[in-house]
Every structure is written in structure tokens, then in C-alpha cells.
Amino acid sequence: MGTVSGAGARLLKLFEGHRLTPTQRRIAHCMVRRADDAPFLSSVELAELAGVSQPSVTRFAVALGFDGYPALRRHLREARPLPSADGTPDAGPGTADGDGGRNAYQQAVQAEIDNLRRLAAQLADPAPVAEAGRLLAASRPLPVLGLRAAAAQARGFAYFAAKVHPDVRLLDEGGSMLDDRLDAAVRAGASTLLCFALPRHPREAVAALERARAAGLRIVTVADSAFAPVVRPGDLLLPAAVGTALSFDTACAPMMLGRVLLEAMCDELPDAQARLEEFDTRAAERGLFAE
Q1: How far is the C-alpha of 136 from the C-alpha of 235, rounded, in Å?
Q2: Which residues contact residue 149 at a Cβ distance below 8 angstroms, ignoring those fewer than 6 apart?
Q3: Euclidean distance between CA atoms 137 and 245, whole angstroms
């Protein structure tokens, strides 16, 4: 992609703050690429250009808050800038120059940098993370839940946590087995469950957390916002925004927050350093890693 035009920047502004599905984001990206033509495209033409179905275009318009695609197209036509005195369209305040000439990929990276900056500001108060670290360290075993999009975050946390925590149990698959593993963790003495919750939030995750609360577990949740459907009063919520500028969410801030939680948990485990050194010694003996 080249730099985003003034019309493209205005479209990006329209899409901001809306939770779009991957198909809807594909439509949005197509409109940005064809920003000058977008106000004049029929729903069928836009569907063909984006490689989606015509009903998907209609659902996209509704997701943006319009009654349908004709209302969206009318809005785009009415929002077009008036020509300037020399007869050329007024670029308006949202030009590519205003974005430093960044293309769409660069803007997506910049959005993630902004998410990390917000996370850094949030961590100016370390008390919530410190409390989470104490809860995670004290839970034996420690169940770590993450389904679908959040499975990678849960798996990454569990991989490293197992090096310092004596009993980490990864819950990254739904179905009846999830209930069985959760019940087993409760029977074994778990006191806290760590949940990574990212859009789009699976109903199975919501149900599993309700089951965990009913069993008396304290819930520590890394979620994309305080309004995530998995969050309930009484949970220890640690928010970390996801990036939405690409077809699929990016989760740099949730991943970073997971590593911060690992550090906080290590601070509460008196034998964490000894366990790490023991692992390094055994890894060297086994020739586990290429040096």
C-alpha cells in the first residue's frame, strides 16, 4: 500500500472505535485503498472488489451504525470536502502529510506503539500487577485459561511460568475437556485462575470463568478492555488494548503485560531464581539449545 490519501484518512477515522470482524475489516481496507471511488460504489461493486458477499457489505454498514449500505454511501458523499478556490479538492485535516506520510502498515505499527505507551502509563501504579503476582504465585496449581485468539497468549505465559512455578496447568481448548481440567485444578487446590481474554470473546471462555468463580477461584484477567464480556465485579482486571488496524487483531500490549505478570510472579516465588538456574544447568547438559 502507498500512503493514505486525505479521503482514506477520513475513512480510517470513521472506522476507528468499531469492533469489526476480519471480513468487515477486509471491506474497510478495500474502501481505504479505493477512497476516492468509495462514495460511488454500489454494494455489489464493493463486495466484488473486497472479495466478499454482498450481505457482508450490508452487515459492515450496520456495524458502523448506519441503517444499511445506502446510508453509509450517502454519508460518504456528504462528507466529501468542497473544492478549494483553485478548483482542487480540499485535502482537509486528515491528509497523509498529517500522518507523516505513513502507509497503512506503518500506521498499524504506530497504533501498537501507542497501545504500549498507554500500558506503560498504566503501570505507573504497580499495585494491581503486584497483587496479581502474589495471587498467581500462591495458587497451587495455577490454571491459565486462553481460548481461540487468546490461546497463544495463555500458552506463552504457561511455557515460561512452568520454569519457576511448580504446577502450571494450561487450559487452551474448549469443550467438555475444559470443564474436566478446570474441575481437576480446583480439586487439586487451585485458588486463582489467570485468564487471557481477547476479541472475539468465545462463549466457552465466559462459561468457564463463571464455573471457576462458582468454585471459589479468584480470577485475574488480562483483557482488551474493562467492558470485555468476560469481566465481572470482583475480578482483578488488567487491561491491555489490542490493535485493530489490520484484518486480524494484534496483541503486543497483552503479550507484554503477560511478561510483566511473569516478573511479578517471580518476585513472589522465593525459589524462582534457583529453579531458573537448575533449568539452565540441565539444558546445557542435554545440549537443548543451539549456541
Answers
A1: 13
A2: 198, 199, 200, 249, 251
A3: 36
Model confidence pLDDT, tens digit, residues 145-190 = 999 999 999 999 999 999 999 999 999 999 999 999 999 999 999 9
pLDDT in tens, 86-114: 444 444 444 444 455 788 889 889 999 99
| CA geometry: angle 31, 33, 37, nearest 5 deg | 60
Measured in whole angstroms, the distance separating CA 125 from the mean position of its chain's CA atoms is 22
Sign of the torsion formed by the C-alpha atoms of 24, 30, 33 and 38: negative
- Nearest of 54, 279, 244, 53 to residue 159 by alpha carbon: 279
For residue 281, the surrounding DSSP H or E stretch is: helix 272-286
pTM for the predicted model, two decimal places: 0.73
**CA–CA separation, 274 and 290 (whole Å):** 23
- When comparing pLDDT for 32 and 131, which is higher? 131
Angle among Cα 156, 232, 145 to the nearest 5 degrees reads: 20
Chain-centroid distance of CA 286 in Å reads 37
Q: What local confidence, expressed as pLDDT, does residue 85 receive?
A: 46
Q: Which element (helix H / strand E) includes 220? A: strand 218-223
CA 178 – CA 204 distance, rounded (Å): 9
Apex CA 185: angle with CA 156 and CA 199, to 5°? 45
- Cα 83 → chain centroid: 40
Give the contacts of 178 (CB within 8 A, at least 6 positions apart). 147, 171, 204, 208
Residues found in the chain: 291
Residue 126 DSSP symbol: -
- Segment holding 119, helix H or strand E: helix 104-122
Cβ contacts of 78 within 8 Å, gap of 6 or more: none
pLDDT exceeds cutoff 50 at 123: yes
